[in-house]
Amino acid sequence: MIVQQLLLSFIASALFGMIFNIPKKLLINSGFVGMVGWMVYFVFAEHHLNNVLATFIAAFFVALLSNLFARLYKTPATIFSVSGIIPLVPGGTAFEAMRHVVLNDYNAAISLAAKAFMISGAIAMGLIFSEVVNQLIKRRRS
Fold it and tell me: How far apart are the C-alpha atoms of 98 and 115, rounded to whole Å?
């Protein structure tokens, strides 16, 4: 099961990289970033950590790896981070929230929408926190 999860997250990230016109030579790397992010999320979620916290940690690792690859390949980090966060995006949860709105089940809709919003915020905070750590390391070196 874990192999299937890793393979599908790699493919999803790499294919979104194609949609975003990432240079072809970097598609495997962007897929790898997404796969690592999903692996981190999966490990923490399997150990019964809150989904929001697991997403935050995974997004943090996506951004760290994106910055590392950006230095190695002399490209912007967004090339890797944008496609790398794709497996973490709570699209299914947001869809379910809208479905419950259409079905007039507002209690479930609000709960699911709040969860999708918190997970989206965790992605943003993980990326930002990683950038802050990256900037602190850069300042220490100079």
Answer: 13
